[in-house]
Amino acid sequence: MTRYIKESEICELTQALVKQPTVNPPGDTKECANIIADYFHKNRIEAELLDCKNGIVNVVAKYTGTKSGKTLLLNGHMDVVAPGKEWTVDPFGGEIQDGKMYGRGTCDMKSGIAAMAAAMVGFKRSKKKFNGEIILMAVGDEETGSQFGTRYLLEQKIGLNADFAIVTEPTDLKLELGNRGLRWIDLSITGKACHAGRPHLGINAIEYGARLIDAIRTFKPKIRNDKFEPSLSSLSVTQISGGTQANVIPNQCRITLDRRMLPGETTETVMSELSNIIDSAALSDVTIDIEMRPNFWDPYLISESEPIVQTIKNSYKKIIGKNPLIGTKPACTDGSHLFHIGKIPALLFGPGLPALSHQVNEYVPLRNIYLATDIFIDAFEKLLR
Ligand SMILES: [Zn+2]
Predict the structure, then answer these.
(1) What is the pLDDT of residues 29-55, one digit of tens each?
(2) Which of 90, 96, 348, 365 is deepest in the core (most CB within 10 A)?
């Protein structure tokens, strides 16, 4: 099937990456980054390691054409979430059964990294002339906000000049044109503690927290976008804590909110909406501190007419023989940062099955990795004429 690179080579590369336990936190990607850089060096493609913070090592590889031209950026994250305990196979074994490779990160998203790295090598072996440059970023820190991964590299101006990008997050080879945004907000309510035998002498922070939660439940999203599923933004209470012991009126209640956003919503719109909700709850007896966490993703959506979308669509048709599905991603990706920091139209397209991300016994169908590699090799030539 693949003309310039053997399936066994792509499979072995994926397996080598999966065998590295790059669990985040702490998110140590050093060994995994070394494997990727070595693979490029062996194939005489320039690759550099960037040690950003406490073992968060990013890889940047470059393959340059004969003349100047467009720049294609390929992006994927090496870090994975913790596997948990219920696995029936070794989460870092990369075992293969019935055409599927099992392991944490097979789907999200080391198979995506392997497909694009192998495609760069395959494209080089094809000796096809091209103009411009392919830059591959394999990053860490994605599962915890990308501060030392993609965001760091863009701030260092790496890949910032790209004309288009592909992020190989799991999409089951569906073309995804953007993702919803996300803010996490911590609310801290301070009342007054006192003996629970005389509750009227205190101010019960948990009771005020309950009042606030009631107000949050009246939230009605203002924006609807049918390109997204779900098509409405959301505001959910995801964590709550408070109180010190059974016989003390609590002076503290902490509530965490998860706010999913659609294009058109920003930090400012989210905060002004929240402040209206808080006002409506009449909480003047307590103080409320509002803190937005430093990890954030902005919503984004690119047009189907973008060259990166059209090219991958045509290569998909050529390799697979039918039209691809087109949609968007409900979860957040580094595509947000590429789009908002770098102004780069970023397509999400990868071999993993999105429903298996962060799941027990995660796997990837090997065939999907080989197809993604073929589609990329075909698309490189068309994008970088
Ligand atoms: Zn991911």
Answers:
(1) 999 999 999 999 999 999 999 998 888
(2) 348
150-205, pLDDT tens digit by residue?
999 999 999 999 999 999 999 999 999 999 999 999 999 999 999 999 999 999 99
Give CA–CA dist 46/19, Å, rounded.
24
**333 C-alpha vs ligand 1 centroid, how far in Å?**
7
Domain 181-297 has CATH 3.30.1130.10: no
Q: Are 165 and 72 in contact (CB under 8 A)?
A: yes
In angstroms, what is the span from residue 226 Cα to ligand 1's centroid? 23
The CA angle 89-117-6, to the nearest 5 degrees, is 75
Angle, helices 366-383 vs 7-18, to 10°: value is 110
145 CA to middle of ligand 1, Å?
A: 11
In terms of residues, how long is the chain?
A: 385
Cα–Cα distance measured from residue 315 to residue 318, given in angstroms and rounded to the nearest whole number: 5
Those residues with Cβ within 8 angstroms of residue 297's Cβ, 6 or more apart along the chain or in another chain: 179, 181, 182, 332, 333, 336, 337
The pTM of this model reads 0.93
Residue 145 near residue 294, CB atoms below 8 Å: yes
* Cα of 283 from ligand 1 centre, angstroms: 39
Query: 201 CA to middle of ligand 1, Å?
Result: 50
Please give the distance, rounded to the nearest whole angstrom, from the Cα atom of residue 380 to the centre of ligand 1: 23
Domain boundaries, the chain: 7-179+299-383, 181-297
Fold of the CATH domain 7-179+299-383: Aminopeptidase (3.40.630)
Residues with CB under 5 A from ligand 1 (ion): 108-109, 169
Residue 89 backbone phi and psi in degrees, to 5: -125, 165
What's the rounded Cα separation, in Å, for the pair 100 and 62?
Answer: 30
- Between the CA of 159 and the centroid of ligand 1 the distance, in Å, is 19
Which residue spans within the chain are E strands per DSSP? Answer: 46-53, 56-64, 67-77, 96-97, 100-102, 131-139, 164-167, 175-179, 181-190, 194-195, 234-242, 248-249, 252-261, 287-297, 300-301, 326-329, 346-348, 363-365
Q: How far is the CA of 109 from the centre of ligand 1 (A)?
A: 6
Structure-token pair, residue 358: 């962060």
